[in-house]
Amino acid sequence: MRRKEIGNKVLLAVTGGVAAYKSLEILRLLVKKGINVKVVITRGGERFVTPFSFLSLGAEEVYTDNDQFSIINGSSIHLALSRWSDLIAVVPATADFIAKVASGISDSLLLTTLLASKKPVIVAPSMNENMLLHPATQRNIEILKGFGYKIIEPDEGFLADLAKGKGRLKDPEDIFEEILVELTPKKLKGLKVLVTCGATREYIDPVRFITNGSSGKMGIAFAKVARRFGADVTLIAAHTTEKLPMGMKILRVDKTEELFEVVTDEVKKCDLLIMAAAPSDYRPEEMLHNKLPKLPELTIKLVSTVDVLKEASKYKDNKIFVGFALQTNNIIENAKKKLEEKNLDYVLGNSIENIGSDLGKVILMDRFGNISEFEGDKESIAEFVLSKIFKF
Ligand SMILES: Cc1cc2nc3c(=O)[nH]c(=O)nc-3n(C[C@H](O)[C@H](O)[C@H](O)COP(=O)(O)O)c2cc1C
């Protein structure tokens, strides 16, 4: 097993594939997250992207094979770089690079650095489908897995020549997420976390429905952050236009009744429930099976939907339940009321400005009425809440 290190220094390595331009997006995401990034570009890589592009997007340093025989602070550059980094991410990785690493060849700055490193390595292959499926490449990928390197399997999709096939680099956001997973200490290992997100729909007729403005961003942020800390996450997703995260069990739901059924099923297996979904509180008493024609006026009788949290609390035992209280006014009073009524351990009070936004301002109240405030992006809110609950 390779030694796992934690930190925020990433060596981003770029090899000579057409997807090399996507590594610029990964650099941007890393820099935005406050991670220090140095870049190594192979000779092949330099044919597709330039060192200047990485420097202008915030890379601390960019090295090419012209730097292979240089000394940094008295150390050979490959040793200095392997010592400096907490993680090496090769994006994209060519068939040629994968074959050379598999054989232990070290005739370039990147290959020498890898051979000299005991840090976690992420490799994201990208190539033409025949190159990927060639037995040599498949064998070499298996060898890299055997070294303990994390391989980010390429997707199916349109390749460089616009032919469809397997070999397309995984989305930069997904690769970025895997880098964060590797860098984050596994403080929630063994914890089963159930998160709900998004807005439910209550149908008037087959095409019209009642819903709310919940984007699903808060629940998705909780699911991602809990996974980064090593939790085993299940995400129950009502309607959201956000991209759903990788590396967890995902269950899609439509109406509040479905959300209730799936939550009731899953809550029995979890240690922590984060109820970030926004179920509709009302539904039409009756759903029409045919589309209503346009009428001069229409009265719809609404009835209450099932109270998902209250019903889930029947299975609470010593599980930790976190609910949300979104209010236009009296946030603290309403949060306290919800905490007591729903038998919650924590409630996050927030205002309507948080709906759909990437940023949020929240108050976290525990069952003793202690309050702490936090403002930041939704992933930082999730980190803040989890660190408060689990005291890390
Ligand atoms: C236009 C063009 C596109 C290429 N795209 C890829 C690719 O997507 N994946 C790959 O494995 N090789 C690709 N190659 C081949 C590599 O560039 C070649 O194997 C090179 O030696 C790789 O060098 P490196 O691994 O040191 O970066 C491409 C070559 C050309 C000319």
Can you walk through the features of this model?
- Mean pLDDT is 94; it is low at 1-6.
- Helix 1 packs across helix 9 and helix 10 (217-228) packs across helix 14 (378-390).
- This protein has helices spanning 22-32, 43-46, 51-56, 77-84, 95-103, 109-115, 129-133, 135-146, 172-183, 217-228, 256-267, 308-312, 331-341, 378-390, and strands at 9-14, 36-41, 61-63, 71-72, 75-76, 87-93, 121-125, 150-151, 155-158, 164-168, 192-197, 202-203, 209-210, 232-237, 249-252, 272-275, 282-284, 302-304, 320-327, 346-351, 359-366, 371-377.
- With 392 residues, the protein is α/β, with parallel strands linked by helices.
- It folds into two domains: 9-183, Flavin prenyltransferase-like (Rossmann fold, 3-Layer(aba) Sandwich), CATH 3.40.50; 192-390, CoaB-like (Rossmann fold, 3-Layer(aba) Sandwich), CATH 3.40.50.
- The chain has 14 helices and 22 strands.
- Helix content is 32%, strand content 26%.
- The structure holds flavin mononucleotide.
- Flavin mononucleotide binds at residues 15-19, 42-45, 94-97, 126-127, 131.
